[in-house]
Amino acid sequence: MIISMKKSATSEQIEHVKQLIESFGYKVHKSKGTERVIFGAIGDERGKEKLTCLEAQPGVEKVIPILSPYKLASRETQEDPTIVDLGMGVTVGGKRLLIIAGPCAVESREQILDVASAIQDSGAHMLRGGAFKPRTSPYAFQGLKQDGLVLLGMAKEQYSLPVITEIMDIKSLEVISDYADCLQVGARNIQNFQLLKELGRIRKPVLLKRGLSTTIEEFLMSAEYVLSGGNSQVILCERGIRTFETATRNTLDISAVPVLKEKTHLPVIVDPSHGTGHARYVAPMALAAIAAGADGLMIEVHPKPEEALSDGPQSLRPAEFKAMMEGLRRVANAVGREI
Ligand code: PEP
Ligand code: MN
User: Fold this and answer.
1) In order of start, what are the domains of the chain with their CATH numbers?
2) Residue nearest to ligand 1 atom 4, measured at CA
3) Beta-ladder partners of 236
4) Residue 212: exposed, middle, or buried by beta-carbon count in 10 A (0-12, 13-18, 19+)?
5) What is the pLDDT of residues 60-92, one digit of tens each?
6) Which ligand approaches the C-alpha of residue 301 most closely?
7) What is the SS3 string spanning 287-302?
8) pTM, whole model, 2 decimals?
9) 106-123 pLDDT, tens per residue?
10) What residues flank ion ligand 2 with Cβ within 5 A?
């Protein structure tokens, strides 16, 4: 249920209503908008009669049921966009777009430092690089693991870029948290509910990638797992879904951007690299994503894609990334955003 306070409600009235909701056994999510305070009462719907009676309390404007199955992720609970703080002055969810770039996997010291230097030079805000890689084949390169994290940390310090890397299982949570500014949950793990619950307990931003066959509602329910654990710093990433089409690696669902932006206050970014699987389609889809209202992008960049140990065909060369950024500035400007 949502309890919307009047514009004129006093702080005593607001506090009293909060205490009443808690006394009914509900968890309270307080959202302070520009005009009024809104409470989300999260818990067993069976006690909703008591909540409905709150309408009689001084300062309460109305009590409205939350219709969506995801409560904390819903725009109904929080109208203002969530701004996620990634550290080092980088945020996502506001006017400024978040551009994350880097290799699919950290491969060597030289490779990650080269990419970090190039993407920083082109205006990217955050460095990506997998150290624990979820590969379809057990014989494919699985990532440098902790050594990869150390190299990522080195690039972070040298180029002052916050870093994001994928977490595949709970047992690597501690070591990844030591290095990463944001933890990425990959498409294949988006319904690993145990992992999502653990990520709800930490106080670091989490980026959730849409699964290969995840509906928007299921995607938001995954976000709800992290939010309901107490971690409000969640970013959503559309990265293509599996359809009958084979010309592209996945089908990038650009329509997921306006749909998600309508349904949730969480930031939404797009990954056109995994979305298309081909470097030549990455820039056009990146521009389309920003035009559609995305809050940022995640782009794979490799100094020598032909030698990449994973996802070479979809990786941009640094010069291609730079050219894409120039086009992006124009589109961002046209839709009232900044890079
Ligand atoms: C990745 O970002 O390198 C990755 C494996 O992505 P996804 O989980 O979207 O396939
Ligand atoms: Mn990849």
Assistant:
1) 2-64 (3.30.70.1140), 84-334 (3.20.20.70)
2) 186
3) 208, 268
4) middle
5) 999 998 889 999 999 999 999 999 999 999 999
6) 2
7) HHHHHCCCCEEEEEEC
8) 0.94
9) 999 999 999 999 999 999
10) 104, 311
